Amino acid sequence: MKNKSLKIAVLSGKGGTGKTLVSVNLASVAGQSVYIDCDVEEPNGHLFFKPTDIYQQDITVKIPVVDENLCNGCHKCVDFCKFNALAFIKNKPYVFEEVCHSCGGCLLLCPEKAISEKEKTIGKVQKGVSSNVTVNTGILNTGEASGIPIIKKLLNESASDKELPVFIDCPPGSACIVMESIKDADYCILVAEPTMFGVHNLNMVYDLVRLFDKPHGVVLNKCLNGENPAEEFCMEKNIPVLGQIPFDNALGSLNSDSKIAARESERFRALFYSLLETVMKEVRHETTANPQR
Amino acid sequence: MKIAIPVDEQDLESGVCPSFGRAPYFLFYDTVTKESYFLDNSAVASQGGAGIRAAQVIADHGVKALLTPRCGENAEEVLSKTEVLIYKSIPGTVQQNIDAFAAEQLILLSDFHPGFHGHEK
Amino acid sequence: MKQLLILSGKGGTGKTTIASAFIRFSGAKAYADCDVDAPNLHLIMAQGSEPKRTDYYGMPKAEIDADKCVSCGLCKANCRFNAISNEERYTVDFFACEGCGVCEAVCPAGAVSMKPAAAGELMLYSDNNKAFSTAQLKMGSGTSGKLVTEVKKQMKVAATPDIELAVIDGSPGIGCPVIASLSGINMVLIVAEPSISGISDMERIIKTAETFRTKIGVCINKYDTNSANTEKIEKFCLTKGLPFTGKIPFDPEAVKAINSGLTIADVDCPSGSAAKEVFRSTMKLLFKESDGHSA
């Protein structure tokens, strides 16, 4: 079934720049829309949306289980494991579940077929509703190594054939979980702060989206009067600036109380709606000019 | 009996390594024959699970007691299941720790930090 | 040498702004940036100097030799990470490969080998008798406790024996890199942000830090952006018996300073003065006679 919805990923090099602010508010002003929180280590979007009618699913990965009766003590599994998740204790392999990366190598290699697999829960995905927005949240249990299986599930689940725009709130940085989050995005919004740190961090995600050949634009957040090194960077590199969100005590206050600014105040609703229009225009222009896939 | 100590240098007069899993070397010492030898720690290159692998090496060498300033939960699990006692090392040289152990002055280590995957208990 | 680690749980709270100010106030000669995903401390503390650079190797990545490959597809069928594709020939996606070695093990033709892959770069600035250690993880690499451990080790090795204090700028989150940075620390200073998400992340990071049984102190940055939440945090510290080392106001002068490559300790500004008080309280706590925690 062809997926016709527009997927817009919101990312930044660092936490606290405003990814959630932008993705939550854009989703709120976009009529019927979908919001996906891929920051599975520290999901915050749901604190703003407070979704109801939650449908929850556990996410599991496969963990090896050793049948001690079949094991002949050959050590092959322990020697193979690149993650040191298996130790040989009293002549039997012992599995360290939280270190295991679920690669399946040990069971493939066991000459006695003594290893099978069980499912282990590493987190969950929740789907709920907040007015016009379908809210999808991924939560990784503390202690688990990788959130990638959760992000994969989130992105698959939200695939639909309706033409609803999808806003993906990405994890900060440019590590593998970020790559997973933007894999299928049609467009990337990079959020940047007007500081020297902000530019440095913007540069990192800028490199990332170019590596993945994603059309992109920048939203400048927390703008104060005076120099804006991030804006200068965009001019230098010819990156479209989609909009500027001023540093505003009222906005900060609403945000720190986990309130959705666009729903609380007409001024902010207008601000984000205008940003949305610019984004949509830019996205349509980019995706028709450079059709991918 | 055989004891083991994580060390930064192959020298009995050097200090004990602050990390167990990623210590560059282990010292193995026999309290009866007073013989000792050093071994490179193969766990040092591991991305993850270094404590587990280091503990495996210790257990496989027939060690009965490990002297270390700290130890992770995963390593502790391997060591306790293979019946290796874990003692808290004292500040000072490796030799001083060996002597303190022989004089029964060391206490057992009682708190173990979570594995580097943030495992919470 | 006493080690102070600055953490926050949430990103963007001002760890680096505060860490750099503390380094100035204390004249510390040993410091490190453990935020290997997005290091910022060097932008303030090391402008103009060239560091010693060392490649950091993470998990090896699989490579397929096209000449030996017989196109049986076993590698792709057994790869749990969808890292192998065969558009024209069988190739490994560098970023998706987790280095597990299954493809190498199942290949009947010996066409797959695991090659060392540089996952980042360590940098050490040691001009003027200082030991400033930092690193940058390459794009797409898995978050790494090991690289953080290397950063701290690099600092410790380079620090001369007379150095009494090391200031470590931590990384956000609660995962691998944070746990790795906590090992061997004498005190953690948690920088909290007075927002609902900031408080939630602060609680998670406190839980993590508590399992290490180091001294913990809490301070609030940009406290005047929400006084109700600030009060909440102060009450929380009181109830849990956590030392509260002070609060710093939001200050546009701080942004100006940082943009000019200065710390808030270098300019006369409200956040700088408040940070000095937080610094004093934190130092008092750090150097107070401790509970026998071995270095």
What would you note in describing this structure?
The complex is a heterotrimer of chains A (293), B (121) and C (295). By secondary structure, chain A is an alpha/beta fold. Chain A has helices at 19-29, 45-49, 76-80, 105-109, 148-157, 176-182, 196-211, 229-237, 249-256, 261-264, 266-289, and strands spanning 7-11, 33-37, 52-66, 86-89, 92-95, 115-130, 133-140, 166-169, 187-192, 216-223, 241-246. Chain A contains eleven helices and eleven strands. A nine-stranded mixed beta sheet of chain A has the order 3-6-7-2-8-1-9-10-11, sandwiched between helices. A two-stranded antiparallel ribbon of chain A has the order 4-5. In chain A, a hairpin with a 2-residue loop joins strand 4 and strand 5. In chain A, helix 1 packs across helix 11 and helix 5 runs parallel beside helix 6 (176-182). Chain B is α/β, with parallel strands linked by helices. Chain B has a single domain (2-102), classed as Dinitrogenase iron-molybdenum cofactor biosynthesis domain (Nucleotidyltransferase, domain 5), CATH 3.30.420. Chain B is 24% helix and 21% strand. In chain B, helix 1 packs parallel to helix 2 (73-81). Chain C has two domains: 2-56 and 120-287, P-loop containing nucleotide triphosphate hydrolases (Rossmann fold, 3-Layer(aba) Sandwich), CATH 3.40.50; 59-116, Alpha-Beta Plaits (2-Layer Sandwich). Chain C has ten helices and 13 strands. In chain C, helix 1 (15-26) crosses helix 10 and helix 5 runs parallel beside helix 6 (176-182). Chain C starts with a strand and ends in an 8-residue tail after the last helix. Chains in contact: A-B, A-C, B-C. Chains A and C meet through helix 4, helix 6, helix 7 and helix 9 of A and helix 4, helix 7 and helix 9 of C.
